[in-house]
Amino acid sequence: MSHTVAPLKIGDIQIWPPLVLAPMSGVTNRTMRALYRPFGFGLTVTEFVSSNALAYGSRRTMEMIDQHGLEKPVSTQLWGDDPQTMAAAAKVVRECGADIVDINFGCPAPKVTKTNGGSACLRDVDRCEAIMKAVVDAVDCPVTMKMRLGWTQDDLVYVDVAKRAQRAGVQAVTLHARTAKQFYKGSADWEHITRLKQAIEIPVIGNGDLDDAQTAMARMRESGVDAIMIGRGALGNPWLVSQIRDLMEGRAVAPVPSAAERLGFCIVHYRTMVDELGEQRAVPQMRKHVALYLKGIAGAAHVRERIMRIDTAAQAIAVIEETIERVAGAAQVAA
Ligand SMILES: Cc1cc2nc3c(=O)[nH]c(=O)nc-3n(C[C@H](O)[C@H](O)[C@H](O)COP(=O)(O)O)c2cc1C
């Protein structure tokens, strides 16, 4: 079977398939990354980590940069507005196993932008450049950067920042094609991703609103990007990633699993989170995941409501098992 796209190369690291799991704070912890990676991600990225917090090395922060030592290659994402603090943080995450250090110039959340971090850096492109230079100088591994189009629609700085990245020695750029002020409104504008690919020589990773396999491949082809990054589309539906990998590897797309199989995997996800984080932390975190696995399933709203009120893993898993029995029974009747 011949591949339909080329591997992604970031520095000396060859990545197959060129499919990247988007960093998602509060979602893509090491447990979730380890569970989702085998579906077909060639590269996973940690949740963003504050460079200031790393200076204190709290247990929770160190947990955020851990990858079980198994996830290869893995990129660790950092945010902050001070070049020297970012450089020091990059050294720490490299020592802790990061194969790639990624710089966040994309987060629009006020708790980050109020201290000039994330997408707020795009308001000061000289600062962006200073941060990128400092991080590249600090580590012996590839440095990448993820950004939005700019702070506002009137100030689209992505080509300028990407050119500065290239000059600074950054080895790949991810573009989420929305402005910071858009948050998640409207749709990602892939025209800008095409423009960025034409403007720089280093690899470009396109990101935004890819939630079906055919569209993802079409976007990749049309924009000419070196890789695509998937976030929300894969949540509760990692089979999307397998389908994209099928297309990248020249195979027919595997059918999506039944609702019962999907919920069966949801239980595996639940139990793994409880094993690794403990019940007290896993139960609230799993509520949003369960809701996503339930998407499109008959009676999902009622099940979601019950899950939101439950405080123990055993009760939640019992509700999911009950739902599996119901949907499997309904499928038999329909057949
Ligand atoms: C809950 C959530 C948390 C996110 N956290 C991060 C983050 O830590 N770092 C980052 O660069 N982007 C973060 N993002 C943005 C995603 O990486 C991605 O750029 C965005 O969701 C668009 O891609 P999608 O349409 O495939 O979801 C987050 C998005 C979501 C929904």
Structure commentary:
By secondary structure, this protein is of the alpha/beta class. It folds into 2 domains: 8-248, TIM Barrel (Alpha-Beta Barrel), CATH 3.20.20.70; 259-334, Putative flavin oxidoreducatase, domain 2 (Non-ribosomal Peptide Synthetase Peptidyl Carrier Protein, Chain A). It is 47% helix and 13% strand. The strands form 2 sheets. Strands 3-4-6-7-8-9-10-11 form an 8-stranded parallel beta barrel, surrounded by 6 helices. Strand 8, helix 7 (158-168) and strand 9 (172-176) form a beta-alpha-beta unit. Helix 6 (125-138) packs parallel to helix 7 (158-168) and helix 9 (213-223) packs across helix 10 (239-248). The longest helix has 22 residues, at 313-334. The structure holds flavin mononucleotide. Flavin mononucleotide (FMN) is lined by residues 22-27, 47-48, 77, 104, 106-107, 146, 176, 207-210, 230-233.
Keywords for this entry:
14 helices; binds flavin mononucleotide; 47% helix; Non-ribosomal Peptide Synthetase Peptidyl Carrier Protein, Chain A; 335 residues; 2 domains; two-stranded antiparallel sheet; eight-stranded parallel beta barrel; alpha/beta; 13% strand; globular; TIM Barrel; single chain
Question: What is the gist of this entry?
Answer:
47% of the residues lie in helices and 13% in strands. The protein has 14 helices and 11 strands.
Low-pLDDT sequence parts = none
**Span from first to last CA?**
34 Å
Radius of gyration: 20 Å
- Whole-number tally of structural domains: 2
Widest beta sheet: strand line-up: 3-4-6-7-8-9-10-11
The number of helical segments is: 14
The shape is globular
Biggest sheet character: 8 strands, parallel, barrel
State the share of residues found in helices, binned by percent.
40-55%
What is the helix/strand order?
EEEHEEHHEHEHHEHEHEHEHHHHH
Determine and state the CATH class of the largest domain: Alpha Beta
Number of strands: 11
Q: State mean pLDDT (0 to 100 scale).
A: 96
